[in-house]
Amino acid sequence: MRIHAFLPLVLMLLLSVGAQAESDVGGSSDPRQLPRFPLSWIVSYSTQTVPEYTLATGPMRKVDGLIAPELDKRIKGELTRITYRLPDIHTTDQVFNYYLQLLQSMQAKILYQCSSRQCGSSNQWANNYFEVAELYGLDRTQYFLSASAGNLQLALYTVKRGNRRVYVHIDLVEPLKQTAETLAADLQQQGYSWLSDREQLEPLIDFMNNHPQQAIVIGSYNKTGGVALDELLSQSNNAAIEVQNRLIEAGIEPTRIASVGVGPALPISERELPAGIWIQLR
Predict the structure, then answer these.
(1) Which end of the chain is more exposed for a tag (fewer CB within 10 A), N or C?
(2) CA distances (Å), 45 to each of 40, 42, 83, 134, 279, in order?
(3) More confident call, 150 vs 195
């Protein structure tokens, strides 16, 4: 009798939890890299190109009279902002641990993480950093992390409000699709530009054709762990020469192109991927 009396209560609880998973806002979608927390739904969604995004790598503090992350990393790219709401029965530590485990399975590098009052004021994260008022909650319930997974950069924040509503917000920044115009802008502004995909050289070829007097250096690095220095130097040199040869095959004058492989001799702060190629003016 007790079992029969208990079953309707269990069913009612399950149905009430399921009913809390509401519809997403129109035009929104999950990032392909991060499946959502079960039963959560999207309440805010936007995408935009940002010339400079401040990825927090430290707590929110008043810096020079302004509320800002104590430490940060400046990046540019395509920014996707997603705010999820969760059924009220869940806690922010459950949400945070769910995403932390996902990122760890992706071999992501955690740049910074904090919880509770270590993060600073929730008001500062909600209104100054993310500019999402719904994220203003109880300081003791908040969690934040920033991470790098390949060429994807992200910031994640979860909090419970005083009305018991639980939110998780994700900012994802992916590299801009490289074009001859973006390549030219990089070279003009900073004198170099990372090659986003060495298999897709059309933007670089277009740039060289549009600037027939410009000479360049193709640089390559490789800091793959567990490989001898001589081998890293050889691999990076070969990668640079490969790009150089493909440009020559495309009709670019060989005297306009130099190449160099530096192995692991590149400051880590400059590039987090284990290998890469950049173009610089000569």
Answers:
(1) N
(2) 14, 7, 7, 13, 35
(3) 195
